Amino acid sequence: MPSNSLRGFTLGGFFIMAKKPKLTTLKKKLDKVHSYYVRLRDTDSNGYGDCVSCGTTLEWSQGQNGHFRPRQHLSTRWEDTNTHLQCSRCNCWGGGESYLYAKELDKRYYKGIADELVAQSREFKKFMLFEYQELIAEYTEKCKELLKDKNFDLKL
Length: 156
Hints:
The protein is α+β, with helices and mostly antiparallel strands. The protein is 44% helix and 14% strand. It has one domain.
């Protein structure tokens, strides 16, 4: 008899293992829920916030999850101090406006955080399947908490 810790089902006397989710699928799901979290975190109760780089006011759904250090660096990809509400002009066509972004980070948090994020982004980080799942659950809960104080609804 298979262990209770195995996930799957019995079919015709055989135990069929459940298919493991792929890392790429989990990474996309985490990106999506983290993007919701950042955009909700950085907006007021009506869903409006300011771009971290240029200060333009925009609605949460029109904003993007801008990264100070690019997403390719997994060690900072989902770091809260590395991600903020950003307009598409700065995030896409402006290449992230990293100079303005760094100045704003130093103002929001403390002087030198931008340099720390640059150093942290150079560290190697590999996420395991369970870590993606834990982060997805964590940011989904954070989104639900943030939505309690918003005057609009979002299906997660």
